[in-house]
Design a protein that fits this description.
Rossmann fold, 7-stranded mixed β-sheet, single chain, 194 residues
């Protein structure tokens, strides 16, 4: 399982780094998985919602991942950077839709679900997001579920922030089995919620 986690100005740090650490911990233990932090624009440093500056591993267009993860951040406050701005800009939703059409499984963490809405991937599908954005998700064609992780096969969504860790462990279990996912959770001292 090759996972590409999309970074953009204003993304929430834990939405991206939590899943990254889960997958990379599994890789370090010998699982046939990898994770990369990518952008859809240039590959320069990206500033996250709380000020962390991260240098991505490259661009999504230069990879052929089996899984694309879209973090949230900056939705509820309609900030000048974050998921709200990226929905309006449209570049990430277009890239995510193309990746899905090419066969990638697409997953979101937190308000990254709103970018999946913009990509047209949640129409009629069960989905969740951060609890403070559920009303926005209900205003779309998604079938809203109040759950930690919603798995609809090739499209998955997770609730807010730390739910991204549960999402990544779930994806890891799908790819490598429960024993691998449980071992990673144990190494991270994380109690699985799903």
């Amino acid at each position: 399982m090759d996972v590409a986690i999309i970074l953009y100005e204003g993304f929430d740090e834990l939405d991206a780094v939590g899943p990254y650490e889960v997958v990379r911990t599994a890789a370090d233990s010998g699982a046939d998985v990898d994770a990369a932090l990518v952008t859809v624009d240039d590959d320069g440093p990206v500033e996250a919602n709380h000020g962390a500056r991260i240098v991505p591993d490259g661009r999504l267009a230069d990879r052929d991942p089996g899984v694309v993860v879209v973090p949230g951040g900056g939705w509820n406050d309609r900030s000048s950077s974050g998921a709200w701005t990226e929905c309006e800009r449209g570049v990430i939703p277009d890239a995510v839709a193309r990746a899905h059409e090419a066969g990638a499984t697409v997953a979101s963490v937190c308000t990254g679900a709103m970018l999946l809405v913009e990509a047209g991937l949640l129409d009629g599908r069960p989905a969740t997001t951060h609890h403070t954005a559920l009303s926005d998700l209900r205003a779309t064609d998604a079938a809203v579920r109040e759950a930690r992780v919603v798995d609809d096969g090739d499209v998955l969504t997770a609730g807010g922030v730390t739910a991204g860790i549960d999402l990544a462990l779930h994806l890891l279990e799908r790819a490598c089995g429960a024993a691998t996912a449980d071992a990673v959770a144990g190494e991270l001292e994380y109690e699985r919620a799903i």
